[in-house]
């Protein structure tokens, strides 16, 4: 049976995704990033167009509920640029929202399931005919606070109802073990349905191997000016995991969270989405080999974000 992936334009065969940016943002508005909102549709289209020109096929947008994801514009962007776009439901850390916004979201598990099965809510609350394909959640720094535990529990419930993967923002790359202990050991989410993000920000190779041994996907996102201090360790971390036998669990993303971080052609200071393919992919081919590079950009995301097999 052909594996399918849910995009904002409908379900497509996973083999048609092409090269995938497994963690990025087209639109984003956070109280933590004043003045750097990603809310320019023309800039988003330019960024996707540059990614397409570099050989990109799909962008997985991790912007969750309530953070200016502009869900009503995602289908338009995908159609105009020819790039597949995956959308997220879920919830970020409480500090990213205005006061009271999390409480107004109501029953989180119900919200997540609705957005996965019926359609996303627009920023004004109106229902849309665009369904999410993943649940984005977040941990805390070296642990899980009460908000994180509540949101992860709701994400696990939504996963059990839909089979959707859960993508986790690890604060500064920490608390991977705590996240897996809660989601997989206590809440029965299969580890192969968990994507751990931001591991490049905490380049502890032993912890990376331990997370991989649990069976989760490991997403190394960036590089960016904000996290340049660990950029130079990226290839070493990836090679360590490839040599340890975990090449089929690795993903790469740009994680563009501010207007300034977009590519030059989209009005930013770089490096932006295209750099994954123009700058990083050639180095991966030289360091890890063509087969490994193909898995990181094509084969692995096609499995990580695929719809569950029907019973």
Folded structure, characterized:
The protein is globular and about 50 Å long. The termini are close together. 38% of the residues lie in helices and 15% in strands. Helix 2 links the parallel strand 4 and strand 5. The mean pLDDT is 93. With 311 residues, it is an alpha/beta fold. The protein contains 11 helices and 11 strands. The chain has a 6-stranded parallel β-sheet. The protein has a 3-stranded parallel β-sheet with strand order 3-4-5. The protein has one domain: Alpha-Beta Barrel (TIM Barrel). It holds the Pfam family PTE. InterPro entries: Metal_Hydrolase, Phosphotriesterase. Belongs to the metallo-dependent hydrolases superfamily. Phosphotriesterase family. This is Phosphotriesterase.
SSE succession: EEEHEHEEHHEHEHEHEHHEHH
Separation, N- and C-terminal Cα atoms: 12 Å
Instruction: Give the radius of gyration.
Output: 17 Å
- CATH architecture title: Alpha-Beta Barrel
- The tally of beta strands, per DSSP, is 11
**Which of globular, elongated, flat, extended, rod-shaped describes the shape?**
globular
CATH superfamily: Metal-dependent hydrolases
Instruction: Give the proportion of residues in helices.
Output: 25-40%
Mean pLDDT: 93
Helix- and strand-based class? alpha/beta
Biggest sheet, spatial arrangement of strands: 6-7-8-9-10-11
Kindly estimate the percentage of residues that lie in beta strands according to DSSP.
15-25%
Top-tier CATH class = Alpha Beta
Q: Which residues sit in consecutive blocks of at least 5 with pLDDT less than 50?
A: none
- Whole-number total of structural domains: 1
CATH topology: TIM Barrel
Largest sheet: 6 strands, parallel
Count of discrete alpha- or pi-helical segments spanning 4 or more residues: 11
């Amino acid at each position: 049976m052909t594996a399918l992936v849910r995009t904002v334009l409908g379900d497509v065969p996973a083999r048609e995704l092409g090269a995938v940016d497994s963690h990025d943002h087209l639109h984003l508005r956070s109280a933590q990033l004043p003045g750097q909102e990603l809310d320019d549709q023309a800039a988003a289209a330019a960024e996707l167009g540059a990614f397409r020109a570099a050989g990109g096929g799909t962008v997985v947008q991790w912007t969750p509920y309530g953070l200016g994801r502009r869900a009503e514009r995602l289908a338009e962007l995908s159609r105009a640029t020819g790039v597949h776009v995956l959308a997220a439901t879920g919830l970020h850390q409480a500090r990213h929202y205005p006061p009271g916004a999390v409480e107004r979201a109501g029953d989180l598990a119900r919200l997540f399931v609705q957005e996965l099965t019926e359609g996303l809510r627009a920023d004004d609350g109106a229902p849309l005919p665009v369904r999410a394909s993943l649940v984005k959640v977040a941990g805390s720094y070296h642990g899980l606070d009460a908000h994180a535990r509540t949101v992860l529990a709701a994400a696990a419930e939504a996963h059990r109802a839909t089979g959707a993967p859960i993508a986790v923002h690890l604060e500064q790359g920490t608390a991977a073990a705590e996240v897996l202990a809660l989601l997989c050991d206590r809440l029965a989410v299969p580890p192969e349905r968990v994507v751990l993000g931001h591991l490049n920000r905490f380049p502890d190779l032993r912890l990376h191997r331990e997370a991989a041994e649990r069976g989760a996907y490991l997403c190394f996102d960036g590089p960016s000016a904000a996290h340049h201090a660990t950029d130079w360790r990226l290839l070493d971390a990836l090679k360590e995991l490839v040599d340890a036998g975990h090449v089929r669990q690795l993903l790469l993303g740009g994680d563009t969270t501010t207007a300034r971080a977009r590519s030059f052609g989209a009005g930013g200071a770089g490096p932006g989405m295209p750099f994954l393919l123009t700058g990083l992919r050639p180095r991966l081919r030289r360091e890890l080999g063509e087969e490994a590079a193909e898995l990181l950009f094509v084969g692995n995301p096609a499995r990580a974000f695929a719809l569950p097999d029907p019973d």
